[in-house]
Each structure stands twice: as structure tokens, then as C-alpha cells.
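To the team - fructose -6-phosphate complex, inputs and output below.
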Amino acid sequence: MCGIVGYIGKNNARITLIEGLKRLEYRGYDSSGISIHNGNEIKTIKSVGKVSNLEEKINPDEFRGNLGLAHTRWATHGKPSIENAHPHNAGDITLVHNGIIENYQEIKKYLIKKGHEFISDTDSEVVAHLIQEENKTKEFEEAVRDALKKIKGAYALAIIHKNYPEKLIVVKNSSPLVIGIGEDEFIIASDASAIISYTNRVLYLDDNELAILSPTNYTVKTISSNKSLYKEEQELDWSDEQAKKEGFDHFMLKEIHDQPHSIQDAIRGRIDMDNGMVLLGGLIPIEERLRSINRIIIVSCGTSYYAGLVGEYMIEEYAGIPTEVEYASEFRYRKPLLDKNTAVVVISQSGETADTLAALKEAKNKGALTIGIVNVVGSSIARQTDAGIYNHAGPEISVASTKAFTSQLSILTLLTVYLGRQRDMSMVMGKRILSELQKLPSLIEKILKEEGSIQKIAKKYADFENFFYLGRKYNFPIACEGALKIKEIAYTHAEGYPAGEMKHGPIALIDKNFPSIVLAPKDSVFEKTLSAIEEIKAREGKVVAITTEKNKDLSVEDTIFVPKTLEILTPILMTIPLQLLAYFVGTERGHDVDKPKNLAKSVTVE
Ligand code: F6R
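Output:
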């Protein structure tokens, strides 16, 4: 999400840090900042917008020293602003953070009681104050370790102390962090692209590890037991471009592989397993109003629209609230019948899509309660909805949406349980859905390991010009999303259809040159989907089936297996092979998959 750079060594830290920030610009950010230890004190400066804005503000004579930190922020807690930009400072402590601290509100309350004053809305500033609090009675390193023991969540942190001009502490738990090893200097960063032009000797920290760096030396320890560790250094043979993509050929593939993490980040700190409940901070102000909502309309475009369609199935089945889904571009010109008991849920990765924004305004004019599911903090849609839930999926760089989509589905699952538990859903059911949701990241890892066999299937079908994508119930919208993905990336004609509709017309198109990708998990409609498969086979149509592992009740041309989960969660797992199929057909055809022709990442015009 955010970009971190840190420097300790023989050279002027500012130059390396600004260069590092520029190399991290590709990730997208809203503000940046830098701190330099000049031997006596730590000087900090921050800016909203481009790194060049920050650079213009810096007086080089003032910002000179051999130790420093820098950061590009992609907002998660609190809007983009100077106050919320990093580095954050508390007394002698200055730090930069990437990740999400789950229990920051609790810790903040504890620190406020102890007299700490906060200037930002961030979870990161709370960590700086917690270390400062521990540092009142312990030395720097011990204070960091003891503070971390109180923190729950994901973090990569780089921390410096006014009284230690030759010490840089970095820690990692679930957020990436790499240490570049130079000649009498170290450059640390959230990804290797900030480092690669200085050195290709690197060391990756693992979770729950802490490194203490001096200009000439480093030690790595476990956070919990303070045990020193031997870490193998690695040599990266990546180009600048490969480093940005963490070694993947394209951002799209990297983002497909990011999904175990982005789903984890979507649900992090939001599950109260003991009570089978969901904690959504953004909905607290409207909690009571949500109890009286008797109708939901989900409004969105493109991939976000298909997420909405899955949401309709989820909310109606488990929360019992009548739900409709509308294309934003249609909703804005209809005469929607809304009242104060209708909630309009607006889904948008970018938060800037013009049609969705116009639909939101229309819903507000009609007096409906509006709720956003948005990835970009502080975006227009996030600002204009009455309440909202952020995705925390991190910036999505490839034009075609992948990780934002599965993140939207995860948030919709949380929303379903939240609304369901306000109504008739039992605690047992809440717990059941949430515990299965928590397993998804590791199940997705499993699917990603099968990438090679999905690539082979993609190669086999790369020259076909037409595809049906079929599914039923929860997986009908996923069929549509799969078809959209292959259209965007491979420029091939594909139609997403409910499998049961084939016999009402489309089956006329089936022959040996018109393959079907059929989503057939072992769910409540499996037998029905099987009938559609048989009808296609009877007309010489080739079928690629995506089904639940160990399912032997299918005899088709090609099969992709996904792990077993609850029916409501199958859409998230089914999506992964479809993204990979689109990606590999696109690359097989030699397309620039990250920037497909005629498409823009954010559609801010009508
Ligand atoms: C498809 C894709 C688009 C977007 C659509 C809505 O891969 O990216 O279909 O989903 O333009 O964008 P957001 O979610 O930003 O409103």
C-alpha cells in the first residue's frame, strides 16, 4: 500500500530517500514526507500530492544527515493531508509505517489517558506514541519490542530516535520489507524497486522479525524472544521494471497473486469471532438506521457491478433484505423509487467513476441512505456517501480490476453478516461464514500454485474467438466477470450467461469452435449446471469446467479444481482461475495486459 524508504550510511540520506520515493511513485500515493537525522535532531517535512512537491519544499542545507526515513502514503486511516502524511513523530521517536493496526483505537484511548496528544487520524501515529510511552522506562530497542507486543495487525515499520543518530530499527509483520546492503550503507524499502539501482544484495525480513541497522552493520532478531537470527542474503538479478512488479511479468499477474493479502487486509480487525459478528467502524454512525432498512439497491459499473450482483444473492439469502443491483449509468437516468428506508450501496474501486458518482447524487437527492464500498480513501464517492467501508486492497495498477474485485466480494460478505446479525441470522451461522471467510487467503494460495496447469489450458484455447462463460446462482455474476476479463485482456468475444438460460436461445451458437467455461462448484445447483454441460457436449461444444476439488462427477474436455468452501464464498475462489485464464490468453496473444487498448483505469467521464 504505502511506500517506505529508509537510509543509514556514509552518504547524504536525503538524496537516496528522494530517489527511492520517486522509484515508488508507480504504486500510486496521495502524499509524501521525509525525516532526516542531522546528528543532533530529526527534521521532518511533508507534502500532499507529488514527490516533486515535497522536493521543492526541502531546504538541502537543513535536510542533511546520514540517517533518514521517507514515505509515500496511500491513505487507509484518515484522508490525504499533511497531518496524516508520514513520517509520524512522538517525542524522540519518528517512524514510517505500511500496513493496518487493528487495535489502534484501543491503544489510542490508553495513550490519551496517559496524556498523549495526537495530531493525525492515522493508526501509524499511535505506534509512534506507544513506543514513546515505552521509551520512558526502557531504552530504544526494548521500547520498540515491547510496543510491538501490544500491537495487532499488519506492519512494516522503520523507526529512528533523536538520541541514536546511528541506529535504524525496522520491523515486519505481514507487510513487505526488504533491506538493501551496500558498501557501508543500508537502504531499506517496502519493495526492491527503491533499492535496485544502489545494490542487488538484499535481505528479506520474515514476519515477526526486527533488524537493527548501524552504518556498517546489522543484526536481525525475533520480536517476541529477542533471539538473534542468521539470515541468508540474496542477490537480485531484477531490472528496475521487474523490481516494481516484484519479479512478475505484469502488474496484473502480481495483483492476482496479491489476493491472499488483499483479502486478509479487507477482513483484518473486522471480525468478532466470539459473537459471530462483524465490526465495521465506518457504519457505526448509521448502525441504528440500518436496522430499519427494508430495501437495498446496489449501484456500480463494470467489474464492481458484478461484485454487486453477488452481493444481491448474499444479502437476500443471509440478511433477508430485498436487494436489487443497477448499472450506475442506467440508474442515474431512471426514476428510481427510493425512500428513507432504502439503502443505496455504491461500489467503486477508484471512488471516482463518473456514472457511479452521478447515481450516488441521485440517490442522495431522493433521501436514500448511501453507503460506499470504496478502495481509494478520500475519493469523491468516499467523501459523498453517508457512511462507508474501505477495501484496504492497496493501489491497483493494472487497468483490469482483479484484487479489488475479490476484496469487494469479501467486504460484501462482511456486510451481509453485519446486516444478517442485526436481523435473524444466528450466532452459529455468523461464526460459520466468518470462519470460512478467514480461510480464503490460504485456499487462494492453493489455487495460485496450480497456475502452470491453468496456463496450459489457456494456451490450448488462445486461438478461439468466442467463449461462453456459464454459472448459476452465486456464480452467474462470476461467469459475467470472467467473460469481461477475457474481453478486456485478450480482446476476444465472450458472453457471461446463467447456465440455465442456454437452452432458451444461446445454445444455437454452440459447436466445436465455440467453447464454454462452466463454473460448476459442488453447490446447491451443481446438478442443474451439470445438465447445461451435457446439453453443450451433445452439440460438440468443448467445456472447461471449474469445480470443487475431488469432484469426480464431471466428464469434460478440461477441468480446473478449486478447494471446497461455503457456497456463499465460492465466487471468490472461482474468480482466481478466470483471472489467470484471461491473463494467460492475453499474454499468449502478445497483448499489453496491463494497459489493454481502449480502456482507462478510472472512467471519470460519462
Ligand atoms: C474491469 C474494470 C472496470 C471497472 C469499472 C468501475 O476490469 O476495471 O469495469 O470495474 O470501470 O470502476 P470503479 O470500480 O473504479 O468504479
